[in-house]
Amino acid sequence: MSLHCRHDRGTPARTSTQHVALRIDGIPVRVPAGTSVMHAAAEAGIDIPKLCATEQLEAFGSCRLCVVQVKDRRGYPASCTTLVEEGMEVTTENDALFRLRRGVMELYISDHPLDCLTCSANGNCELQDMAGRVGLREVRYADGDNHLAETADVSNPYFAYDPAKCIVCSRCVRACSEIQGTFALTTTERGFESRIAAAGGDDFLSSECVSCGACVAACPTAALMEKSVIELGQPQRSVTTTCAYCGVGCSLNAELQGEQVIRMVPDRKGGANHGHACVKGRFAWGYATHADRITTPMIRKSIRDPWQTVSWEEAIQYTASEFRRLQARYGAESVGSITSSRCSNEETYLVQKLTRAAFGVNNVDTCARVCHSPTGYGLKQTLGESAGTQDFDSVMQADVILVIGANPTDGHPVFGSRMKQRLRQGAKLIIADPRTIDLVDSPHVRAAHHLKLRPGTNVALVNALAHVVATEDLVDEAFVAARCEPEAFAKWRAFIADPRHSPEATEEISGVPAAEVRAAARLYATGGNAAIYYGLGVTEHSQGSTMVMGIANLAMATGNIGRPGVGVNPLRGQNNVQGSCDMGSFPHELPGYRHVSDDATRKLFESAWGVALSGEPGLRIPNMFDAAIAGSFKGLYVQGEDIVQSDPNTRHVTAAMESLECLVVQDLFLNETAKFAHVFLPGASFLEKDGTFTNAERRISRIRKVMRPLAAYADWEVTQMLANALGYPMHYTHPSEIMDEIARLTPTFHGVSYARLDELGSIQWPCNEAHPAGTPTMHVEAFVRGKGRFMLTEYVATDERASRRFPLLLTTGRILSQYNVGAQTRRTANTVWHPEDILELHPVDAEDRGIRDGDSVGVQSRAGETVLRARISERMQPGVVYTTFHWPGSGANVVTTENSDWATNCPEYKVTAVQVSRVEHPSVWQQQFARFSAEQMALLEAESKSKTAHAPV
Amino acid sequence: MTVRIFIPRDSSAVSVGAEAVAAAVAAEAARRGTPVDIVRNGSRGLYWLEPLVEVEVAGQRIAYGPVAPQDVPALFDAGWLRGGAHALRHGPCEDIPYLKRQARLTFARMGRTDPLSLDDYRAHGGLGGLARALAMPPGDIVGAVEASGLRGRGGAGFPTGIKWRTVLNAGSGRKYIVCNADEGDSGTFSDRMLMEGDPYCLIEGMLIAGLAVGADTGYIYLRSEYPDAWDVLGDAIINAMREGVLGDSVLGSGRRFVLNLVKGAGAYVCGEETSLLESIEGKRGLVRAKPPLPALQGLFGQPTVVNNVITLASVPWILAHGGAAYQAYGVGRSRGSLPFQLAGNLKRPGLVEVPFGATLRELLYDYGGGSASGRPIRAVQVGGPLGAYLPASRFDLPLDYEAFAAVGATVGHGGIVAFDDSVDMAKMARYAMEFCAIESCGKCTPCRIGSVRGVELLDGMLAGRTKPGNDDALLRDLCQTMLEGSLCAMGGMTPYPVLSALDHYPEDFGLAPKQEEASA
Hints:
The structure holds 2 protein chains of 2 kinds. By secondary structure, chain A is of the alpha/beta class. In chain A, a hairpin with an 8-residue loop joins strand 9 and strand 10. The two termini of chain A are 20 Å apart. Chain B folds into 4 domains: 3-100, Glutaredoxin (3-Layer(aba) Sandwich), CATH 3.40.30; 118-328, NADH-ubiquinone oxidoreductase 51kDa subunit (Rossmann fold, 3-Layer(aba) Sandwich), CATH 3.40.50; 331-420, Ubiquitin-like (UB roll) (Roll), CATH 3.10.20; 425-517, NADH-ubiquinone oxidoreductase 51kDa subunit, iron-sulphur binding domain (de novo design (two linked rop proteins), Up-down Bundle). A 5-stranded mixed β-sheet of chain B has the order 2-1-3-4-5, covered by helices on one side. Chain B has a 5-stranded mixed β-sheet with strand order 13-12-16-14-15. In chain B, strands 8-7-6-9 form a 4-stranded parallel β-sheet, with helices on both faces. Chain B is globular.
C-alpha cells in the first residue's frame, strides 16, 4: 500500500451519460450509472470498511467487510459489488452491520499474526486500520488451524511474499490479471487452504512473474512487501516525479525517508500510467546511489593517462580552454555536442543553446539520430508534425491494433499492459514482426494475424497492405477528399495500385503469405477504429523514413487519424527522446522543429540569445565520427549518452573517439564512451534535479528533486558553468526559467510553465493559446501541415542482404528487465533476469550448424565479430537471429554496420547479414575490449581512493 | 414374438447387480433356447426393488425384484416370460402403489423407455413440446413457462419464467443455455436418474429454452462423479445431432442449437451457478458476486439461462400440455410437482414425484415405509447438506417452498435423508461445518475461515459435552456471521443444519434441553 491510497474509493470510477440519485446514510448523492454503492459513498465522504476492494481493480466482493443495508432489500449486500439504483436508500452503519463486520474481522485475525509492532506494514496496513475501524477488541477463537508457520518466499530481489500475512483478498492475483495482464499469479487449493502462488515455477523468481510490482502495490498487508521497506521501514514523505527509463514516462511517487528513496510507487493520477509501473521504473532505481557513481570532476591529457580528480572550477576552465584552443586551431566547426534523451528538456535545450550560442556552431545532435529520427522526418513530411498523434488512453478506444516492429510488453511494458487490457476487451490485433513476440500469443491475448516478415522488408509489406486498401475499394474517400492533398493522393493511388505492390508480388520479398496480408489489410481498413503502434523495428532500417511515411499513408487512406482510438503512434525508446528532439537537438533544427535556414526563426533566437546563428545545418553524429577520423573534428561534449556502446559499428566509433583531442563526457558512470574521454563531468540522476521529460505521447511531465546532487550540481548547472566559462553568459537560477524561455521561443510550448504543470499534472504539447490544456489527439480538424500529404514509398531492398558468406540476418532489440546500454539496469538486481546478452536462433539454423542451447557462438558480419551464448528458440524464423545490446562486452554493435536510413542516417540496426558458428573463445574484439576496460578501470582506480563511495540500496 | 425384458442400466440398479442379472438372463435364455429381447431401460425409481426386472406380457410389464443372478433360473422355471408367479413378482409395475400414487410429469417416461432410443422417446410423447415451441414466438414460450409457475428445481426456487424473460429481453447478441448437472447434494439423485434414464428430455428442455430466449448454444455442466450419465448424454447428443434434433436446423426448422457437454472436477461449490460458469470458462471455481446476474452477464459475459436438470426437463411437459395443466398441480406459490428423493434410513428409498403440498410424513412413511432399522425416525434433512434438520414435530409440514422457508428450512433439490434415533446430532452439525470447510471455494472470509472455526468449536463441544459447561454463544455468533456475511449459499446456508441441530437437539451438544422440549 502506498502512502497515497488513504482515500481509495474502492471500485473504479464509471463514466455514463446517465446519472443516478440515491441517499446514503441520508446524504443525497448523484453518480454516473454503473457506479458501486461503495464508490458513491466515498463520493459522499463516507468510507465504508473494506479489504478486498480498491479503485484500481474491479469489485470482487470477497472480504465481506463492506456490507451495507438497502431499504426494502433483504440481507446485507456488499457495497463494492452492489450498483447504485435510482432512489436507493443505503445504511452504512448500524448495530447489525457493526456486529457482522466485527464477526468477519474476528475471523480474519484468528488466522493472522499479532506482531503488528514489528511488522513491515506497521503504520501503513489496511488490515490493521480495518481492525481498528470495526472495533475488534478480542479474538475468541483460540489456537485454531492457521497459516502462521508458513515460510516467506524471498526469491524476488525486490519484494518478499510472506504467506503468514496473507488474507487471501486476491488483490495481487487480480492486479496481475487486470492491470498487468500477465496472469502469473493464482490461488492454489481452495477454502482454508487457499494460498497465493506464482505460476510456472517453484517461487516468484522462477515463475512467469515479470516483477512489475502491481501485486505489491495492491497488497493491503505485509504479505507482499518491498524488501526496501522491510529493511528500512515505512517512508515518511512522497515526491511525485517521472520515471527515467522508457518513453512511456510513468509518473512515480518517490517515497522517502529524508533524502533516501524507500520505494517508487506509480502515481494513480499519472496520465501515462494510471498507477502502473514495471520492473525497471518501480524497482530498478538503486543505480542512483550505486558505488560506481563518480561524484567528482576528473581530467586527463591523454586517455592513456590516469584520471586526475579536480575541482569543478578547474574542470570547467580546462574544458573551456580546450574547446577554445581547438576552435582556434582547427576552426569553429571542429567542435560539437551530443544531447541526451535521458536528460531533461531543460538540460537538452541548454546543451544545444551552448553549442549554437557559445560554440557558435550547429554541430549538435542527439541519440534520436539512432532511433526515431525517421519518425520525425516521415511524420513531418506527411502529417506535418514530428510526433505521435495520440495519447496512450486512445488505445482503449481502438478496435484494431496494428503493431509494427515494436515489442511493447518488453520495451514499453506499462503501455503494453494497457494495450492488453484493450485486447482482452475484444480489440483485434495484427502484428508485423520477424519474431514471435509475446503479444502474438499470450494469456487471453492472441494476434488475429502475425505477419512474420523478413527483416528489411517493411516497406514491401506496408505497400502491400496499402495496395489492398487502394484496390479493394477500402479507401475512406470522404476523409481523403476533405483532409488530404488531392494531387499527391492521386499520384499515390496510381503508384500503390500497381501490381508490383500486390501481396502476391511482395510475398516473395517479405515472406508473408499474400492471403494473410490481404486479410490483415481488410481488418485494418474495416474493423472500426484502427490504430498503429510502431517501434524501432520500423525506423532502424535503410528505408526507415520511407516506412514511416508508408504507415502515415495507410492511416490517412483509411481515415484512421484525427480522433481517439486511431492514429500513428511511435513508441519512443527513451524517457525523453521526444523532448530531446523537440528541444532543437538536431543540427538542422532549432527548438520546435524549425529549420536553421529559416530566417524568421533564426532572428527570433538571435535576438533572444544575443548572438548571431549559423543558417547552415551542422554535423550529424555519423558525420562527426567521419570528420573526427578525417581529422577535422576534434572536440565533443557528450551529455548522458554512451555512443561507444549504443552506436553501430563499434570499431568505427572508437576510432573516431580516439581521434578526438578533447572528449568531454558528462555521466553518472564511467561508461564506455568515458573510457575515451579527457574530461569527466559527474552527472546527476533524475532523482537529484528538477526538470521535465516528454514521453511518446508528447506528454510533458515534471521530474522533481528528491535528493541533493551527489556531485553538487545538476547537469543544467554544469552546462551553464561551461557556457559562462566560454564567455557566453547564462544566469538561470532554476530549470523553470529555462522552460519559460523555451515556452517564449517555441509556439507549441507557449502555454507550458512549471506552474501550469503543477496545476495539470502533465501537459501534452501543443500547449498554447489554442490548446491551453494541451492536445491529447493531434490533427483533429486539419493536419498540422494543412492537408495530409501522401508520399510515394517505393520499396528498395537494403544492400545488407544474406549471402553465402553471411547467410543469416541479425536483428537487435531489448528485453524487459534491462534498459538500453544497461548503464542503469546493470547496476541493479535486474541482472538476475538477464545476466548476459544471448543470441537467439531458430532450431533449424542451430541444427545446420551443430549448435546446442548454451553453446558459445561466434557472430560474424562484414563489420566485425563477437561471441555470445546461443539460445535455441522457435520465436525466431529460420534465417533470422536476434540479440540485445545491454552489456558492453557483448559487442552487439561490433557486428552491426554503418548502413543507415537514406533520409536521416538512422542506423540499420535491424538488419545485419551474419554467419554464426560454434566457437570456444571470446572474439578478438572482446579480448581487446576486456583489456582496454581493465586498463581504463585501473586509470580510474588510481584516483578513486579518496572518493566517497555510496553504498547501493 | 420375442419377449422383451427390461433391466435398468441406471447406475443405482447397476450398483446392486443389474449387469450381472442382465448377463444371467441372457445366458439362461440362451441355455434354454428361448430368445429374449433385453432392453436396458432407465430405473423406475423403486430402489428397494432394484434390480427390478420387468417382463412384457401382453402389453403389460410385470415387475420382479429385487432379482439376483441366482434367482434367474427359478424365474424362468416359474414362467416369468408369461408373467408367472414367483416370490419376487409384484404384478404389473405401473400398479405398484408406490409408483401408481405418484404424479409423474417430468418423470413420465422414466423407466419405460430405452434411454438412447429416439424412436422410443418420440413414441412416449417426446419432442411434442419442442414441436409446439418451434411454432411459437419466443415470448409465448416464456409465457407458457411463466403460466406454469415452474420454479428452479436446483434449490433456490427462483421463478423460471422470470429468469427466461430477463434473458429474452437482454438484447439480441449471443446467449447461452447452461444446464447445471452438478448434482452434489447428499441424498439426491433425480438429475442423475433423468440424465441416465431419459436424456432426450433434458436435451428437449434445453432446446426449448434456447428457442425461448434466442440462444443457439447450450452447455451441460456434469459432475465427474456421474460417468454413466456422461456416457449416456454423450451418446444422446450424438444421436440427436445425427437425427437433426440438434444442429444447424432443429427438426428442419432452420433454427440452430448445439450442445456441449462439460465435465466438472469434483468441487461441490461448482454447483453454485456463478462458480459453475467460471468453471466452464476454464477458470477456478470461484463464486462471482451478484449482480450482475448471469441472466444478464453469464457465461463468457453473455446473457445466460442457468437452470437445473429437473427444471429444464420439466419444460417439455409444460410446452406439450400447456402451462395451465402444470400449474394445476401444487399448492400456494409452489406449483407443479417435484421429484423427491428418499434416502437414508428408510425402508423404501426411491424417487417419488408428487405435487407440492404433500407432507414430509407422507413421504417418510407412506412412501418410505418408515426407517429401515425399525427404530423411530429422529431427524430428517431436506434439501441437501445445507438443509436444516427437521425433528418429528415438523413432519406434518407441507412440502412447499414458503412453508419450509418459514421455519428456516429448505425444500432445495428435494433430497430427503432420514436418520433414526441412533443419530448423534452434534456430530451431524460438525459434519455440516466440515463439509463447508472441505468444499468452500475460499473466496469469502466467513465461509473460508468460518467453516474451519466451526469445526474447531464443535470439536471442543463434542469433547466437553459429558461435563457441564458447554456454551454455544460463539458458535451461534459464528453462524450468524456466516449466514449474513457469506457470498453464496455455501457459507450462507451451512448454519442451517448447525443451528437446527442446536435448536432441536441441544442435549446432543451437552447443552440444557430447550424449555418447551423439556416440558413436552
